[in-house]
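Long-time lurker. I teach an intro course on protein structure, and each term I like to show students one example going from raw sequence to a predicted 3D structure in token notation. This year I'd like something fresh instead of my usual example. Would anyone be willing to generate the tokens for the chain below so I can use it in lecture? Attribution to the forum is fine with me.
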Amino acid sequence: MADGGTVFLDEIGNVPLRQQAKLLRVIESGELERVGASRAKKIDVRVISATNADLKAASHAGHFREDLLFRLNTVEIHLPALRERREDIPTLALHFLSQTLPVIAVT
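-- Reply from a regular --
Happy to contribute to a lecture. Here you go:
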């Protein structure tokens, strides 16, 4: 369904090693085989993944495939937890409040 678009893999660090191997094969070859299908289908997708796990440490410990980490880690964006950037809280609160509250005119 994501062919020609983007697939988002949340908590990639929790994917079992067996599925990591299958995912790596799809990313490297650009082909997948649907359940029950007799042949592979070529796909074109952009992959975005997220995790709160330390994938480098998991890779060194043998819990995450190093070759998959290499394929996924083209651009890494580290977003610190909100507790580490408290100065952002007022701005975020105002933004979300403006999205949920009706506009009230004050005269």
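Some talking points for your students: DSSP finds four helices and four strands in the chain. The longest strand covers residues 6-10.
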